[in-house]
Design a protein that fits this description.
The chain is an alpha/beta fold. The protein has eleven helices and 17 strands.
Length: 355
């Protein structure tokens, strides 16, 4: 189902003998590198192209950091990249993955804010996080609080970053609004629900399964609707009738739902498109009548509070307080070891993600 494709999974990496590394005053000496296991893609295609291989541990430049990966997050976008259908594709062969958590093994000579041995989470990666070690730019690294597991840290950076950007930077959601998260039981959807709850914004969500709708309610939604029910749009319309519609819609599958969104959006409301897998015919008159806005969303965020501040409740630009941030509960939908006979297992996982 489309909802399954938005589930995000944190993968624990099995322990292997440590390679020979040298860390001198926090600086990495590349000539002492060993090897590691990593998932590799040599040709774009179905899940069968995934291969587990022994490759050299990546070297780092003066501005980069080497992280021993304890858990890595899997996101649906990585399935599009692996298939070769994404707009920006890496050079073959490559190791997938942009998100993870672990311990800093070594740092480049120009890196001053990060130290070897530090617990961190990654919101970007140079070499790919489906591996035992990953090289990252220092700007990709954030401290991971001791009270947050590696599995949780690996699975939240992209979800919360994207949800924050959709809600507050692109759609300008604020208290007094009614928000609908259209496809709310995946990683970004659950994050959006929690962030709305944190801000005191009335939020609704949809999911196609009973389990998904329960997750939606637990994450803070006032109501959870079944978007596999042919009459669910009318249900939502009736529920928000006193508001004149939904002020902000966070849309996870625009090629299926965009016209429905335009029939639900309030006057001067906004539809923020987070996910899309194809084309759709819409009636522009519905946009005109409501003077509505449609905006696109990518994960890149400008001046967004880091996960550290969201978790610990430290104030950053008066974005959050200790009380409300303690209500943002990090959720991981499932975990599995990555390096177990991985080809068959990764195929099964990707099929689950793609629904």
């Amino acid at each position: 189902s489309p909802m399954a494709s938005r589930f995000r999974v944190a993968l624990s990496l099995l322990s292997f003998p440590a390679p020979i590394l040298r860390s001198v005053h926090g600086s990495f000496t590349a000539r002492y590198l060993g090897t590691m296991q990593a998932v590799r893609v040599h040709n774009f295609g179905p899940a069968e192209v995934l291969q587990v291989e022994e490759i050299p541990i990546p070297t780092i430049t003066p501005t980069q950091v080497l992280v021993k990966v304890e858990a890595t997050g899997i996101n649906p976008v990585e399935t599009y990249v692996r298939q070769g259908s994404y707009a920006r594709l890496p050079t073959l062969p490559f190791t997938p993955g942009n998100e993870g958590a672990g311990v800093v093994e070594a740092v480049g000579t120009d890196v001053k804010s990060i130290t070897a041995g530090q617990r961190v989470y990654l919101s970007g990666c140079v070499s790919g996080t489906y591996a035992q070690y990953a090289s990252c730019e220092a700007s990709h690294i954030r401290p991971l609080p001791e009270n947050i597991s590696f599995k949780a840290g690996a699975a939240v950076a992209i979800a919360y970053r994207t949800a924050y950007r959709a809600l507050f930077q692109r759609a300008s959601a604020q208290p007094g609004n009614v928000v609908l998260v259209h496809g709310a039981s995946g990683g970004v959807g659950l994050a959006a629900l929690q962030l709305c709850k944190w801000k005191g914004i009335k939020v609704l969500g949809t999911a196609s399964t009973e389990k998904g709708r329960q997750l939606v309610l637990e994450a803070g939604a006032e109501r959870a609707f079944d978007h596999s029910d042919p009459g669910y749009v009318e249900e939502i319309r009736a529920f928000v009738s006193t508001n004149g519609g939904v002020d902000v819609i966070v849309e996870m599958l625009a090629n299926v739902n965009l016209q429905k969104d335009l029939e639900l959006v309030a006057r001067h409301g906004t539809v923020a498109i987070v996910g899309n897998r194809g084309t759709i015919d819409i009636n522009p008159r519905t946009i005109m009548l409501q003077e509505a806005n449609i905006v696109g969303v990518l994960g890149k965020v400008i001046h967004t509070p880091s996960l550290y501040f969201l978790i610990r409740g430290r104030k950053q630009d008066t974005v959050c307080s200790e009380h409300v941030c303690s209500k943002v509960a990090l959720r991981v939908n499932g975990t599995k070891p990555m390096m177990q006979s991985s080809k068959d297992w990764l195929k099964e996982l990707y099929n689950q993600l793609l629904g």
